[in-house]
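Hi C.,

You asked whether I'd gotten around to modeling the 105-residue construct. I have! Everything is below, sequence then structure, no commentary in between.
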Amino acid sequence: MGYPGGGRSVITMRLQSRSNLLNITFPAEAQLKRIFSLPLQQKLEDFEEEVKGLCDGLTSATMNLYFGIAKELVSICAHVCARGGHPPNLVRLLVRSCGPAGSAI
């Protein structure tokens, strides 16, 4: 810890003893697919075979959508930071960037 001042405060040993740090790495794509497909498979057990077969496709489509949105948000945030700061209303920027063409708030 640095010295107090400049936005730093002393954290007492008592407070430190009650704090925990948990670091979890992002799972691999195969692990994510398993994590999200198992509950869906269980939900679809009572349906016909045609519906049961949609599980892998739905899981893959959901993961592709997630990774696509995550990639877009990173590029939007990089663009904002490159402009030298944060916009006054980040939500408005995200809605304009990700919303339907021509939508305005």
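If it helps when you're writing up: Residues 28-98 form one domain.

Thanks,
B.
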